[in-house]
Amino acid sequence: MNSLLHSSFDRRVLLRVGATGLFGLAGADLLAESRKPAKAKSVIMLYQWGGPGQHETFDPKPDAPAEVRGSFKTIETKVSGIRITEGIPQVAEIAEELCLVRCVQHTMKNHNSAGYYSLTGVAPSSDDQRLRDSLDLFPAPGSIVDKFIPSGKGVPSFVSYPYTISDGSITPGQHASFLGKSHNPFFFTQDPNSQDFRLPELALPSDVSSERMESRKEVLKIIDEQGGLLEQSALAKGIDDSFQKAVSMLTSPTFKKAFDLSKEPKKLRDRYGRTTYGQGCLLARRLVEAGAKWISVYFSSSIGGPTGGWDTHGFRDQPQDPILKNHLLPLTNQTLPTLISDLKEKGLLESTLVLWMGEFGRTPRINKLAGRDHWPQCYTVVMAGGGLKRGFVYGASDKIGAYPTLGQARPEDITATVFELMGLDPETEIRDKLDRPLPISRGRVISDIIA
Fold it and tell me: Long-range contacts: 72-81, Cβ < 8 Å, 24+?
């Protein structure tokens, strides 16, 4: 297990508070005074690990040769002129809420390097599948949000679940890196679809009073009493450098209630789908209501396979079409439109940016094993809400979906646009391990997609 993301918990580290944390809070207050108004108060990133193929999702090529267009037909959406694959008809019904960026491109063809680039908007020095997670690499955008626009008391700004993505080794870009552990995500691996889903470390003994929680000695005693329960808890993985965060979260009814999915109507839970991913998307909406700023929902821990992520090439015993038809497209068809509709019905979509993306696309031509290989030269990122144009397509690919012919967007442009929508200037600086100033994004804001 990766030591940066899954280090065992030194209980007494929880009780350390230093001047750095206090200065960070003051810095955030100073930054808030000059920050732009935010169109998006929260971001839900639905990360499609493995690399969704543009041809079988949001950029089909129905007039191309068979080895390019594939076996899936295309369908019209609610927006005239926008066609998508027949495998996601419910998504077609909410297309007027979507903003499709069909010209995203980069040069990283390996999962770990492309994953790191797409997550952070910072390209690694080389396209190496052996890229290892380290404190020299750039932090997750959720950690940057936590640093500059933290949530209110008792609610973590950055939450991620239910997997750590990897391909041989942990993919960088999922935690705070050199920003420090206090900006790590509140991370957990419990299955939101399980009947007993809850976070036990947030359920304090009934005899714990608020006065007792104010005493460091008493908190240490409580943690010691709970022993192994907290050893692998979300607290250990996300906020082990901040006593104040630990206390406020342990005593926060708002955050604790967000995890009680039983409070949701059965019909709504069924609409999301009784799957880990479906219930995880429902939880994301509840976390937005609780005040979280960035929620990362990872589609799968595996890059591919019959029940894994979107890496659909090279399976001799099962070509890509059955995997798409039976697993990947049904999950997308059920969850993405339900989440967007649910946010809209609750008046949250305008202030919540939904980001559906993977690390790259797939090759224009299907290989001999009836699959598509890695292709970062042109793919689609789907966005919705949060101040974006609705029913809009930015950019276009050529007749076989190989290269952009109109518009240009790179991973750093996606992060720059997201930060801009959240009221963060993409040129805002952070400092790395060597105290060098770095902008939080090196890209340009895609102003054409902002409403």
Answer: 72/321, 72/324, 78/391, 79/391
Cα separation, 217 vs 164, whole angstroms: 33
The structural domains of the chain, ordered by start, are 11-449 (3.40.720.10)
Please give the Cα distance from 178 to 300 (Å, whole number): 26
Q: What b-and-e string marks burial along 264-300, b requiring 16 or more CB atoms within 10 Å of the CB?
A: beeeebebbbebbbbbbbbbbbbbbbbbbbbbbbbbb
Cα–Cα distance measured from residue 305 to residue 318, given in angstroms and rounded to the nearest whole number: 9
Q: Around Cβ 19, how many Cβ atoms within 10 Å?
A: 7
Do residues 85 and 379 lie in contact, with contact meaning Cβ atoms separated by under 8 Å?
no
Nearest to 336 by CA among 319, 316, 357, 318: 357
Which of 19, 345, 368 lies closest to 182 in space, CA to CA? 19
C-alpha span between 249 and 156 (Å, rounded):
8
pLDDT tens for 288-313 read 999 999 999 999 999 998 899 999 88
Q: How far apart are CA 175 and CA 183, in angstroms?
A: 8
**Coil/strand/helix, residue 413:** helix
Span 25-51, pLDDT tens digits: 444 555 555 577 899 999 999 999 999
Interior/surface letters 306-342, b for 16+ CB within 10 angstroms, e for the rest: eebbbbbbebeeebbbebbeebbbbbbbbbbbbbbbb
Q: Which residue type, as a one-letter code, is found at position 323?
A: I
Q: How far is CA 312 from the centre of its chain?
A: 21
The verdict on whether omega for the bond into residue 162 sits within 30 degrees of 0, i.e. cis, is yes
The identity of residue 235, as a single letter, is L
Helix (H) or strand (E) holding 431: strand 429-431
Contact yes or no for 365/66 (Cβ under 8 A): no
pLDDT single digits (tens) 56-86 = 999 999 999 999 999 999 999 999 999 999 9
- Paired with 166 in beta bridges are 170
Beta bridge partners of 396: 406
Tokens of 233: 């808890």
* CA–CA dist 25, 16 (Å, integer): 16
3-state secondary structure of 350: helix
Residues 48, 312 contacting (CB under 8 angstroms): no
353-372 per-position pLDDT tens digit: 999 999 999 999 999 888 99
